[in-house]
Write a structure and sequence with these properties.
The protein is α+β, with helices and mostly antiparallel strands. It has three helices and four strands; from the N terminus they run βααββαβ.
Length: 92
């Protein structure tokens, strides 16, 4: 299944904290997800509230949540919303 990950700033985080976290090098575990094809299309938001979104391939929502939970310590300035998505709305 395909999921879209969308970041939101955690309450109390200022713009500088968000930018600092986003400009760090990508963690080796995150690169592993990219190399395996599980994580793709990482794009960064611009404007008043910096953040990112990405596409995540996982077998189901539970696996997607587990992968997100495993990265929480590396993304402590953000909350992540997980949205199931698909390429064509009329196909299940």
């Amino acid at each position: 299944m395909l999921f879209m990950l969308v970041s939101r700033a955690k309450p109390g985080r200022d713009r500088e904290q968000l930018i600092e976290q986003l400009t760090h090098q990508i963690h080796p575990e995150t690169w592993d997800l990219v190399r395996r094809g599980a994580l793709s299309h990482i794009l960064y938001k611009v404007g008043e509230e910096p953040g990112f979104f990405a596409l995540l391939n996982a077998s189901d929502r539970e696996e997607a949540q587990s992968l997100v939970d495993g990265s929480k310590s590396r993304l402590d300035a953000f909350e992540l919303d997980i949205h199931p998505v698909k390429h064509f709305p009329h196909f299940d």
